Amino acid sequence: MPCARRDRLPLLLLLGALLAADLRFHLWPQVRRRLAPPEPRCACGRAPHPAPQPGPGPGAGSKLRRLLAHPLYRAPEPGPSEPLLGGRDTLRYYRRKVARWNRRHKLYRQELNLTSPAALLQLKMEASWLQFHLGINRYGLYSRSSPAINQLLRDMQHFSMISADYSQDEKALLGACDCTQIVKPSGVHLKLVLRFQDFGKAMFKPMRQKREEETPEDLFYFVDLQRHNAEIAAFHLDRILDFRRVPPTVGRLVNVTKEILEVTKNEILQSVFFVSPASNVCFFAKCPYMCKTEYAVCGNPHLLEGSLSAFLPSLNLAPRLSIPNPWIRSYSFAGKEEWEVNPLYCNTVKEIYPYSSGSRLLNIIDMAVFDFLTGNMDRHHYEMFTKFGDDGFLLHLDNARGFGRHSHDELSILAPLAQCCVIKRTTLLRLQLLALPEYQLSDVMRESLLQDRLAPVLAEPHLLALDRRLQLILQAVRTCIDAHGEGSVVVNDTQTWERPTAESTARTR
User: Fold this and answer.
1) Which one of 201, 207, 238, 324 counts the least CB within 10 Å of its CB?
2) Is 387 in contact with 447 (CB distance < 8 Å)?
3) Residue 366: active-site member
4) ∠417-494-344 over CA atoms, to 5°?
5) Angle at 306 between CA 303 and CA 310, to 5 degrees
6) Confidence band (pLDDT; 50, 70, 90) for 76?
């Protein structure tokens, strides 16, 4: 043992010497090279890449902010802004609905023998959903400067749910279908109505397709899956185009157990929840749409991604018309509509009320431009508020079948523009503006979508497809102008808008 202790000291000295040598001759030179400033490169060789410069401050380089500050987005409306709702009648109506909700909720708790006191809901004038309803006017669902919209988006992202239920159209069809006869279960969307703690409501559409997936080429448009992210992206695109005809829509991770199953009073909805073999909580529509558990949507294990679209005012307050689209598609595996085989079809449409005068046909063209950019072929009907008459704006609802194929541009969606060869001057000016490098539609869309909690909402190829489709729209307008002249094609719908500079416009040609 004493001999072993004497041998330990030389061994430790040897190890220390080796470590010192490694530090001195190997590690230290590397540290010095990293800390030393870079040596100047030879000027005769390839020039080095410039060092990256610090970016601009917050908002300074924002294309979206510059776009919304452009005179095209600051011009006044062409006429008086007539509100959709009367404030006094609206408040009286919603107060009655809140009181009815409190009574029914009290009875429901009594039936379940729940003795703990439940807080009564109260209608608050400052609620963002109520301000959204009161802000709807003749020219859009919201004004450009409305603070209620951004607040509404935040509230839909964070407020807790107090109830979940099927939508009214689904309730009307419950039990009316034979589940054994369902031949296209993927063609419809499982959707729910969720109510928030402030009594606001939103339509929830769950994720059914991943962002990077494309719709198969062989799939018909009327059996295509509906996409929650398409609803979100459609709202942002609609706002960028300054149409303001899509209800505010936001993405959210919903806990299907706590925020749907535990708050719903609908026994049918409660009955379609189950736990998958992977221990995820799932649910499906019992009828009319998807009748089997293999068509269910599942959380992970409880959280499910989806879109929330703010409800429009009740039909009792603001009646709406649902009108067939003149360019409706054939919803069958064979056969074509007249517009698909007759290039002069628009001449027939122009002779029919209400397309024979006013702005209805121009609003159809706006809708076609919007749908072409999103790739939505499923615009069989459109809705509009009856209060604003024949010249009211069209509501761009149900956009979940957009953004399915980024590699394909469905030119038939542009048939109203190509066949009628008319377009609003204001619409054309914004399209030309968004084609300029200073703004670039894909860039402002990307920036706008980053504000959503589910970002990235769209895969990059879908964003790039927007620029390509925008050029196709402008090409269609140029073809019309070459054939009929600018005076016949571009309808001057207002006198107060500023045209982009000639140099900027030339860059889109």
Assistant:
1) 324
2) no
3) no
4) 20
5) 130
6) confident
